[in-house]
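pinging the channel bc i need a second pair of eyes. not urgent but kinda urgent?? the chain im working w is below, pasted from the shared doc
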Amino acid sequence: MPVSAIGQQITFAVEYDADDPPPAVVWIRAKHGDTIAKIAGRRGHPEWKADILALNKGRDVLPHPKRQPGHKAPPIPRLRNVKQTLRTGASIRLPGQMKGGTYLNVTAGDNPPKITAGYAKYDTVDVPGRVGLSRFDGYDPIQMDIPIQFENYAAQVGATIEDNIVILERMAGRGKYPGSHVGPPAVIRVSVTDNHGNVVPLIPPNYQWSQKNQTAPLWRISAITWDDGALRNDAGFRIRQTATVTVTQYTPLNYVERSVTRRAATKRKAKR
């Protein structure tokens, strides 16, 4: 869940992975108290709740009302919006990108995420005998450090942590799978939501998707720094491990095709 007994969780979700093309749709079973909004947030794509609703709208996935003695059976309610509570165990269709292994919920670290790069760059043009001129050179891609902690000390079960670390390292392009360490790692989305699927500003709002920020940056993992002092159980599995995940803004080239007529018009305008 996005908020666990330990604290707020951060969600890493794959947006695109050339080494693992998704199926068209996947099916899951709704958990107790689930809504479409909760599922979307838990799987790292709160922006897709409308898409999930479209895949399931009108289906028989809500709790059935009880029949009162001496009355006709009430009509079966149908799914209409993202906040309706789903029937526990109901089969729900999701976009294929939301399959298992393409998202990870991990507890936030002691320190909040912080932006470490991506602001304006300048160099200095020397002017003999005078103060140099600052010349704007553009922007670096945004870079963000995200402290996290894998925690299962109370249960002393480390296998789950090791499985989650495998998912995180795969997002970073490492691991034992076809395409590992060949080409760039997956493009991911990073989000923080509460247990109702609402966006939480633990990561600054400018850098995660919300209704007010629908062009939030996408990311690639550029580093994972594993902290010393990990705790292990008797089987050797980690039951507590802290780390810092560094993500760098994904900035693909965008090509714009223009007709001959438009190029000619642009040239005429430039000559004026």
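so Residues 159-171 form the longest helix (13 residues). and The chain has four helices and twelve strands. — does that match what u expected or am i reading it wrong
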